[in-house]
């Protein structure tokens, strides 16, 4: 029995130590977890690999094609029977007898062939398809980089949204403790006949509102942690958060880097251009080389072997579907170019809006700090006057409500400041929160 108790005690100590040793989750770690574990980004990475495999396939169009064929046949069809015997190298004089030619006996054969085909000239289609595939693979990779940055911005919103909710929960608890102290004070004065019962009831109503607010904030905390876990691919986050909600001082004007979506749009336009060239090449002649060898057996010893080599030219002098495809490919190229230009204009707009959002959030935060300081001083003075019987309770409660409003404004402005800075990084193509892949 003592051994079991010691074992249980040791297990509890180890479990407690492991919990105490749990490291806080920083914003950098959360972003890296999202990039590594989120199912959505894993799907995006699979698309990158798919595009790369397609590009490899287009590149390999230049390589020769080897085709192996095996066959077995039995027939008494006159032309096939004569041809099979000829391929088996066993034609004799009796095979030219009209009766034999017209009514041959059924004949069996088995054999095979190997054919190598090598394109020599295709009107530029293979080269253009190869380049288009490479551009599309690079565009998908750039799009994946952009998706990572967009995910990082969402992680910032969820991470600091969680901190906002948890700080709000702490302040609600502070308010509830203050109300409890006020209830004790006012209750004592009511018992002494120095205050009206209505003031105590007003405090209890205020206390009930704080309790309801706490329940709502708890729901927000759990929802925020669940959302953060969804983004990081780890399930609801339970541990502490290690990065402060209040950002560091600005380091100056940031430069503009290449955005993944703009890089992707440029590469997609190039791919569309190469696709137009490939479609145009289908209207030109193509030249190919073919090498082959075949064998046809009557038995293991009776067989015929042959080889061939040839160079051929094929040209669709007129093909309405190919002409239409070339026209459609040129239209797709123009569409891709216009989309690239639009995305560039959109990016410039987003940079301007994000910059203004940072300025507005910073100003809002500065005003909120001054408002909180004023509200706290007002509450201190009104509470002191109330305890001396010089001010009604409603003034103290109004001051407390002002503090709550100022605290809410501070949390909102801090959250907006952090998110707007992440939005500016996303708009300019810079690493969000300084985190690089």
From the alpha carbons, calculate the radius of gyration and give it in angstroms: 40 Å
SSE string, helices as H and strands as E: HHHEHHEHHHEEHH
List the quaternary state of the chains: single chain
Tell me the structural class.
alpha+beta
The N- to C-terminal Cα distance equals 54 Å
Main β sheet profile: 4 strands, antiparallel
CATH homology group of the domain at 56-121 and 284-318: Outer membrane efflux proteins (OEP)
- Please state the second-level CATH architecture of the domain at 56-121 and 284-318: Single Sheet
Q: Helical amount among residues, as a percent range?
A: 55-70%
How much of the sequence lies in strands comes to: 5-15%
**Structural shape:** elongated
Regions with little confidence, pLDDT below 50 for 5+ residues: 1-21
Number of alpha- plus pi-helical segments: 10
The residue-averaged pLDDT reads 86
Extended strand count: 4
Looking at the structure, the CATH topology of the domain at 56-121 and 284-318 is Outer membrane efflux proteins (OEP)
